[in-house]
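Quick one: sequence plus flavin-adenine dinucleotide SMILES, need structure tokens.
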Amino acid sequence: MTTIADTTIVNSTRAQAAATDLLVVGAGVVGLAHAYEALRRGLSVRVIERDHRANGASIRNFGHCCITGQGNDIIDMSYASRSGWLDCAADVGFWAPEAGAVVVARSPEEMAVVEQFRDERGTEAVEMLTGEAVASRLGRASGPEFLGGAFLPADLRVDPRTAVGSIAEWIAAQPRADVRFGVTVGAISDGRVHTTAGDFDAEKIVVCVGHDLDYLYPEVAGRYEVTRCSLQMAMAPSPRTFTTAAAVLTGTSLTRYDGFTAMPGHEQLTEALSRTSPELLELGANIMFTLRPDGTVLLGDSHSYDITMPPFQEEWITDRIIEEISGILGARLHLQQRWQGVYASSPQTSLLMEDIDEHTRAVSVTSGIGMTMSFGIASRTFESWGVDRVSATV
Ligand SMILES: Cc1cc2nc3c(=O)[nH]c(=O)nc-3n(C[C@H](O)[C@H](O)[C@H](O)COP(=O)(O)OP(=O)(O)OC[C@H]3O[C@@H](n4cnc5c(N)ncnc54)[C@H](O)[C@@H]3O)c2cc1C
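Reply:
Sure thing.
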């Protein structure tokens, strides 16, 4: 069995439970991906989560693993993450169809960005669609509003409301794992984690607390200028005609993922949107939607930034998002739920990985791509420690 340090010693006078090779703080998707990848490497792992079940960004999102739209700097990690998701889904048995994503282009500027993206990434990664094909994937008759678009076959879908819970349950059932909910970490020093349920020792500690990094490490969060990003989301029963599991992205999505914003046509696209739909830019919209396996559709979203996030939702923002998506689907949507999602953001990086000391690393995804990148990030963590996978499955 590979261990990070063969010298990991259980010292019952120092701590109340056996030390583990790895201790993960936070049972969101980033923490659980680290725990899963640790088990695949034959390591023992403990996960400590302050809530009684995952309740953060990882259950509030679209469940879209946006593999293709990532920037060139992290595209390899993105594809590695895709493999990690598929391995984990096979082990755990949760819904993770290789459903891809459809990009809907409704203006020449949107079409130009999609075509430039196809030219850069190639026709296997970016399959062009006619307006008719886009309409058909949306379950609609074609109309003049759809100029065309693209299908991104490598993108994956998961159900955010059930995926992380199933992963946590599965990890907890593994012989080398210990998952503790309802336990808050207060401080960490020199391989020892101080919690509301006592102290735990580990050779390596990964702190995956998302946007709450500033509570545990204010200096690190301050140095990276970490703020909170708040998003307004909603859910409705899907119109009968909309049945694709592919994520659906629209023109505003092309302004929000680094793969698309690197295209030369991005500037003209933003200018065009500022003429036709300035309010969408004002609310930081990424108009997109995803179908869940229970037949509801997740609808969003907006973006606003602050260190302490006001909880108040603006009704006009939800109205505008729903108006836009209803127009694309050609169907009225009857909202069933609304909620606020929050994730970490930094103007300096989309992925914060900081070694606090020789035992402890803080990992926060500081943009809206943590669901996509989680397993790739976890693999990178173990690579940097020189620990390889020892089996194809756990
Ligand atoms: C509305 C919305 C839509 C999004 N859509 C997508 C998408 O489609 N695709 C995509 O790739 N990304 C998406 N994202 C981003 C993605 O959801 C996040 O990047 C990702 O979930 C972050 O995961 P995490 O594990 O770091 O954080 P979280 O899920 O927030 O988990 C952190 C956990 O740490 C725990 N914790 C905090 N402090 C302590 C402590 N002191 N002790 C113990 N536990 C602690 C918290 O309780 C929490 O459970 C979206 C985000 C939102 C909000």
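Confidence is low (pLDDT under 50) at residues 1-15. The domain at 20-61+161-224+350-384 is CATH 3.50.50.60 (FAD/NAD(P)-binding domain).
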